[in-house]
Please model this.
Amino acid sequence: MYVPNVSVKVDITSLVGARLVVKGTAIETINFNVKAKLEERERKSQMVLVGFSLSLATKPSIVKFEVEGTATLTGKDTEINKMLEVDPETKVPYVFQRIYQYAFTAMYLLSTILNAPQPPHDLLLPHREGVPVEDISVEVAAEAMTPPSEKPQETGAGTVGAPQ
Model:
């Protein structure tokens, strides 16, 4: 889902790529296993900051990529909440599709440097074709999906009732 009035600024804080197999191994089919985590870190009027981590590994084990960072969503609160909703088709929050588009570029460059298979550019999009994906799992922190009206109230000393 594209929400035109929401800006998503992605900052990558950590990027790791490792080639696990020596070049020259003949492999016909490569599957990608994906593990992702999305956690809301801060919410203000018309702004939400979420932390993310993304791990892609091939099966058989040829290469592994790990990306961590933050995404800042700005726009109207109702529109931001739409971006945080889970896509019923892919079971992934819509904002993660935008995060992946940004992270894909970094992983693609790393795969070129490592002379390893590139991750698919359309991995989290519905109706994807191309490289098979064996497993996609996204862990979403419960707080990230809580509507603002149900969020704990902030005080000068910190957030009351927030998980530690």
About this structure: Residues 128-134, 142-164 have pLDDT under 50 and may be disordered. The domain at 1-21+30-124 is CATH 3.10.420.10 (Bacterial Protein-export protein SecB). Residues 158 and 164 are 11 Å apart (CA to CA).
